[in-house]
Design goal:
The protein is α/β, with parallel strands linked by helices and about 475 residues long. About 35% of the residues lie in helices and about 20% in strands. The chain has two domains: about 220 residues, ATPase, nucleotide binding domain (Nucleotidyltransferase, domain 5); about 200 residues, ATPase, nucleotide binding domain (Nucleotidyltransferase, domain 5). It is globular.
Length: about 475
């Protein structure tokens, strides 16, 4: 039996799966937490990987890392970390994003060149923030990489000069072109103020090196591309992933170039493309309202499902701590329609409908980019909620499927490791199991309430 290891280094923790290469059967697993916050020293990720992978990594013949995208890992000429990495959910670089758009020819030029329109999440804006606010640190930067790149380098035990990345993670930087497959040094220099070394972009199934114990190391992926690979997405499949953030993505044969910036034109982990939208607020919206109502998960679901669609006129705009899609980094949540008739049930329902409505906007944006929606799959921590499962079809207006609960990001990394080890042209086909089916009549009134509030608050914000 050939074993491979898949690593998911997320915002909150590191998870390691030890998997049978031919079948995808999970043999063993481990997990270790990361510190909280929107910046983190990469050493914490490495420590967590050692703990989560203890007794697992040494049994694997190949390994791959799938990691949180966009995080800025800046190294000096001795390969030492210059400062804690700014993570994807750090919004301090919002002013720099606006400046880069203006200096780079506007949204149309950025979308055409990079597939992205800069927002605070993307690495290029974080480099611009570093140059503006910590110029001494910026001058020390000799190389720049992403969280999964840095961990892959550490697993191999090599210097930054030998570092490798993949298309999926490179496509989230703002200084790489999905169309040409090349870095855009002018974008990097325009942000940081000088050039810096970047990881080589490897082929999706390439063996980029070996661990000191001899295990093959695949190039790794960004986390969403890892989930897509783990799920074995095909044409017409759209995933709504409800974790700390909410992401909507699907596989496409052509790159996206959305001048509004709503859809990011990422690459996937197989040589295709992965158009994607992201909201900063997803599962934590439900966590916040559970805490406000003083209930556990099951009771919260019961409350939400007891209320009628539309939550008695309550509508939640779930931008609790700023938002990325739409790009409102300074926004807060808005609860509209509150009257003396409002109930606990209505509050719970409004939380679920608001969070899902933000994802429905993502599905609509993907459709506008030409992605055909054949089926919608719900994954992520909040997909375990019965309220989310039953309400999602009414908000999305289409049936949804929920695959078995699994660590699909780590599973995708394991699949990439097995693919690289096999030498085959296509990744292995693993059975993820039967999906649960959910359907319901489209609640158009919910969509109308939400879109009205969304557009009104946009108008308010523009006049501030």
């Amino acid at each position: 039996m050939t074993l491979v290891a898949g690593i998911d280094s997320s915002t909150q923790s590191t998870k390691v799966l030890l998997v049978e290469a031919e079948t995808g059967e999970i043999v063993d697993s481990g997990k270790a937490p990361h510190p909280g916050g929107t910046e983190c020293h990469p050493d914490h990720w490495w420590d967590a990987l050692q703990r989560a992978g203890e007794g697992l990594l040494d049994r694997a013949e190949a390994v791959a890392v799938s990691g949180q995208q966009h995080g800025m890992v800046a190294l000096d000429d001795n390969d030492e970390v210059v400062r804690p990495a700014l993570l994807w959910n750090d919004t301090r670089s919002a002013p720099q994003a606006k400046r880069l758009i203006a200096e780079g020819g506007g949204p149309e030029a950025w979308a055409a060149e990079t597939g992205l329109v800069p927002v605070a999440s993307f690495t290029v804006t974080k480099l611009a923030w570093l140059a503006e606010h910590e110029p001494d640190n910026a001058r020390r930067v000799a190389s720049v990489m992403l969280p999964h790149d840095w961990l892959t380098m550490k697993l191999r035990g090599v210097a930054a000069a030998e570092a490798a990345t993949d298309r999926s993670d490179a496509s989230g930087t703002g200084y790489w072109s999905p169309k040409t497959g090349d870095y855009l040094p002018g974008k990097l220099i325009g942000a940081l103020g000088h050039d810096a070394a970047l990881p080589r972009v490897a082929a999706p199934n390439e063996i980029v090196g070996r661990t000191p114990s001899g295990a093959a190391v695949a190039p790794g992926t960004g986390d969403n591309a890892g989930a897509a690979l783990g799920l074995g997405l095909g044409a017409g499949d759209v995933v709504v992933s409800l974790g700390t953030s909410g992401t909507v993505f699907g596989v496409s044969e052509v790159p996206a170039a959305d001048v509004t910036g709503t859809v990011a034109g990422f690459a996937d982990a197989t040589g295709r493309f992965l158009p994607l939208t992201t909201t900063l607020n997803a599962a934590r919206v439900l966590d916040t309202f559970r805490n406000l109502l003083g209930v556990e998960h099951g009771e919260f679901d019961t409350l939400a499902l007891t209320a009628a669609p539309g939550a008695g006129g309550l509508t939640l705009l779930p931008y609790l701590d700023g938002e990325r899609t739409p790009n409102r980094p300074g926004a807060n949540g808005v609860l509209s329609g509150l009257t003396t008739a409002a109930s606990r049930e209505d509050l719970a329902r409004a939380a679920v409908e608001g969070m899902l409505s933000a994802q429905a906007d993502g599905i609509a944006a993907m459709t506008a980019q030409g992605l055909e929606v054949g089926r919608v799959l719900l994954i992520g921590g909040a997909s375990a909620s019965e309220a989310v499962r039953h309400i999602a079809p009414t908000v999305f207006g289409v049936d949804v499927e929920v695959p078995p609960s699994a660590e699909y990001v780590a599973l995708g990394a394991a699949k990439q490791a097995a693919w690289a080890l096999s030498g085959q042209a296509a990744p292995p086909q693993w059975n993820v199991g039967d999906t649960a089916q959910y359907s319901g009549a489209a609640a158009t009134a919910v969509s109308e309430q939400y879109s009205t509030l969304r557009d009104e608050t946009a108008s308010w914000a523009s006049h501030q």
